[in-house]
Amino acid sequence: IKVKDAFFVKSASSLEETTPEGISEVAFIGRSNVGKSSIINAFTNKKGLAKSSSTPGKTRLINFFNVLFTQEDKTFNVQFVDLPGFGYARVSRSMKEEWQRNLTRYIEKRVSIRVFVHLIDSRHPFLESDHDVHAYLEKLIRPDQKILRIFTKSDKLKQSDVSVIKKHYPDALLVSSSNKKGIDKALHAIFEMLFG
Ligand code: GTP
Ligand code: MG
């Protein structure tokens, strides 16, 4: 499979502003700064498609991207959804609470979501907050939804760190959006969950 094309569709601040239900969605979830926007760019091979930044709290809206996959002579249309991060955001508490509320409503009410990609910083693979997010997703998913864990920023790891992760998660997908290692494999895993 290949990504043939990808383009920005719209930004929404709440569930009411989202695109109509229909096209299968892949929602990228994880802590602020884990690399959600960057991995969307790596998957689609488009550098500035999703806006990334070294400052946590960059993505503040629910951003929809249309992605066209091709496999042999078939085309598959999917939406990738870049979300604000869980946790840190240098804004007022009330604003932060409103984002989190909108984010939670999208995650819990959006019918079109087929895959939740839970991104975890591979340098901190066992954080309680990620454990909580995973448990939360497991509890809410419907039978037609799946969760895929992906460990980001693998270029920062030593081989011994990789071994620790592999010991706990033998099938762990370790990915670097910087050097593109693991990107193809992770993209195939998402595609399999959607259409396999
Ligand atoms: P928020 O939108 O704030 O929630 O962050 P995000 O999860 O979208 O993270 P983003 O993609 O903006 O990346 C955050 C920072 O990590 C940026 O400085 C990226 O360049 C960097 N980054 C992302 N992926 C990688 C990676 O694979 N390796 C390395 N070394 N840095 C990365
Ligand atoms: Mg982002």
UniProtKB/TrEMBL annotation:
NCBIfam families named among the record's database cross-references: GTPase_YsxC (TIGR03598)
Role summary: Necessary for normal cell division and for the maintenance of normal septation.
One GO location term (cellular component): cytosol
Residues annotated as domain EngB-type G: 22-196
Lineage top rank: taxon: Bacteria
Gene it is expressed from: engB
Protein name: Probable GTP-binding protein EngB
GO terms for biological process, alphabetical: division septum assembly
Keywords, in A-Z order: Cell cycle, Cell division, GTP-binding, Magnesium, Metal-binding, Nucleotide-binding, Septation
Cited HAMAP family: GTPase_EngB
Cofactor needs: Mg(2+)
PROSITE patterns reported for this sequence: G_ENGB
Example of a GO MF term: GTP binding
Family the UniProt entry places it in: Belongs to the TRAFAC class TrmE-Era-EngA-EngB-Septin-like GTPase superfamily. EngB GTPase family.
